[in-house]
Amino acid sequence: MGTTITPDAVATSVRSTGAVGDGTGDDTAAFAAAMDSALAGSHRFAAGPSGQPQAVVYVPPGTYRLYRLTFKSDVRLEVDAGAVLEQAGGIEAARNKSDAPFLIIWDGTSATAPLRNVSVVGVGTHTGGVKDLASPVEPGWNIDNSFTLNLDPKTTNANQKIGAIQLLYVDGFLIQNVFSIQNATLPDPAAVKASGGSYPWPTTDKAAILLRPRNDSPPNGPFADPHNGSILHQYNINGSYGYGPNQITSGHNIRVSQVYSSGGTALRLETDATKKKSFGGEVRGLTADTIMGVNCNRAVSFAPHGQKNYDVHVTQVVARSCHQGVIESADESLGAAARGGFWDSTMNSVAVVGGLQAQDPVQLGGSAGAWKIGASVQSFARDAKATWDVVFSNLSCQGPFPSPANPIMIGATRQVPTCQ
Predict the structure, then answer these.
(1) 357 part of a folded domain
(2) I need a labelling partner for 399 at 20 to 30 A (CA). Which of 35, 75, 184, 308 fits?
C-alpha cells in the first residue's frame, strides 16, 4: 500500500527561502516564506482537495525542524520521501498547555472563516535512514513513498507532548503518504500517578494527527472543525498506550484510508475535546477503511465522552496482538442522558487475532495510566452502560482471549462473538 507521486518540478523549494535541513536549526520561518513566495507566483497545482488550484512548495531530502508552522489557504506542501520533519525548540517547547504543541497548524481566522484547500503529501521514493526503524515493514504495506514525521522525543530532544499536524477549522484538506515515529517507552506507574496521569518524558503523550474543533466553535453548531478532507496512507510505529497515528474528536465528511499502527490505537475516535467545555463539535460523515493495529492497545476505539456523533462507517479492520480489538465505551462520570454516543454507525469486515505483545493498561486509582506488555485480553468490548450501538458485520476472531467478548450488535441482534 502506498502511492507514488512525482514531485512538482516547478514548485518553490523551501531551500530557496533559507531552509537548511540539517536537523539542528529552526526552519519554520523559511517554510512560511516559501509558502508566501509560491502564493505570489503564478505556478499552480491544478486541483487541490477542494477542486481549486494550489500554490506548490517542495521540501527536498533533509531533516527539517518546525514548530507551529501556520498554513495559508490554497497551499500544497510536497515533502520528499527522503525528508524528515521534527520539532524545533527542544524539550522546553510546549510546556505551556495553552500552546498547541504541533509541527503544523491548520486553522482559519475565526469560527466563520476556515482555512481552505490545503495539502501535505509525500512525493518521490526513498529508502533507508530512519525508515529502517520500521524494518521489517508489515507485509502488504510500503513506506518508500512516504515522508517521515519523527515525533520520538528521545532521538530529537523534543517534548513528549508533540504532535505532527493539528486540524482545526479547515475545509478541504489532504494528508497523504506519511511515516510517523513515536516513543512507546513503558512508563513507571508511580511516575504516571505522581504526574496526574501524564506520561513522563520520553513516552509519547499525543496523537500524531489531531482533528478537533476550535475553542470558539458554537456549542450547537455549525461546528468550526475539519470538513471535507482525507488522510491517506499513514504508517505509524512505536505508538504508546492510548495514543498513535490519529485522534478524531470532531470532523465532517472525512475519509481515512490505509492506517497502520504498531502500538497505540490505530483509529482513535475519542471525542473528548468538547468535554465540559463551552464549545461544541461532533463527528459526522466519517468513512475509514484498511485500518490495522499490531501489538497495540486497540485497533479502533469509539469513546464519545458526552459528545453526539453520527454516520461513522469503518471497514477492513485488523487487530493483531492488541489488548482489545474494538471498544465502544461510555463515560460513566456523566449521567446516562449526557454520555453521548455514535449513532447510525457501522463496522464491517473486522478480524481480531490474539497475541502476547499487547499493551495492557495498568489501573491507577480506577483509571488507566501506564501499561505493561502482555497477552490480548478481549476481542470486542462494549460498555454495558452505553446507550448506543455500532452495528457490526463480517467478524472473525482467533484466541485465546481470557475474557469473553461483550455482547455487541451484529446485524439486527446483540450477540457475543465467539473466537476460534
Answers:
(1) yes
(2) 184
